[in-house]
Structure to design on (226 residues):
């Protein structure tokens, strides 16, 4: 499968624990995005990377959230001290230099905080 | 942040009829407007997009129209089929960046 992949697909954690998600973009896509989607809503932008540089962060992204893309390939999103309000689907997307605005989504990681 | 309003929130049509979903946006700098289809439990799938230098774009049974002056754009699906049933999201590029602002979605049901 040459599409965007995300791991794990599901994560259940207790409130206060830290969690980390991984996203592997489509090969050679230089931009990578993180979104959050809750039930009945559209995806909400969190942050994006161009190569390894994090260029934009949403005001939604609290200090408990951190994202990295150290080598400009895969990315990780970490949530520290999880809260019940963090329960959502975390979606990753990527786009290429040529199709610069077209974003292709991964299957998401569903986080449940109990 | 900049808003994208989408309506209707639900739409039910009979197989073979047309479906139209409308979105408005507030950021006058937006110049890219994609539409995504999301089936239950699956990833959003890019189905068509339009840029601000174009007024209409078609791809088989789907088309998108854009009115930049009025800041609205629409998705048109003709000859609907049951497999078109899904949630459709419109989105708009935010300013000069690469983030997308999404509408809240339209749940389309096509009944045989």
């Amino acid at each position: 499968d040459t599409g965007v992949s995300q791991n794990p697909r599901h994560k259940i954690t207790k409130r206060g624990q830290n969690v980390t998600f991984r996203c592997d973009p489509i090969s050679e896509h230089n931009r990578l995005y993180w979104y959050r989607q809750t039930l009945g809503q559209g995806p909400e932008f969190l942050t994006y990377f161009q190569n390894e540089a994090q260029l934009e962060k949403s005001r939604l992204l609290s200090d408990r959230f951190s994202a990295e893309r150290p080598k400009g390939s895969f990315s990780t999103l970490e949530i520290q001290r999880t809260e019940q309000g963090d329960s959502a689907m975390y979606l990753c997307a990527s786009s290429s230099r040529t199709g610069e605005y077209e974003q292709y989504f991964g299957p998401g990681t569903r986080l449940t905080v109990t | 942040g900049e808003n994208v309003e989408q309506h209707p929130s639900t739409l039910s049509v009979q197989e073979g009829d047309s479906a139209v979903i409308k979105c408005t946006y507030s950021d006058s700098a937006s110049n890219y407007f994609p539409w995504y289809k999301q089936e239950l439990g699956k990833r959003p799938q890019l189905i068509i997009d339009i840029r601000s230098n174009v007024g209409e774009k078609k791809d088989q049974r789907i088309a998108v129209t854009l009115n930049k002056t009025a800041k609205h754009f629409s998705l048109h699906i003709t000859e609907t089929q049951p497999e078109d049933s899904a949630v459709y999201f419109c989105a708009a590029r935010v300013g000069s960046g690469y983030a997308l602002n999404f509408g809240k979605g339209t749940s389309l049901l096509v009944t045989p």
Remarks:
- The longest strand of chain A covers residues 88-95.
- The two ends of chain A are 33 Å apart (CA to CA).
- Residues 30 and 97 of chain A are 7 Å apart (CA to CA).
- The interface with chain B takes residues 4, 31, 33, 40-45, 48, 50, 55-56, 58-59, 91, 95, 100-108 of chain A (CB under 8 Å).
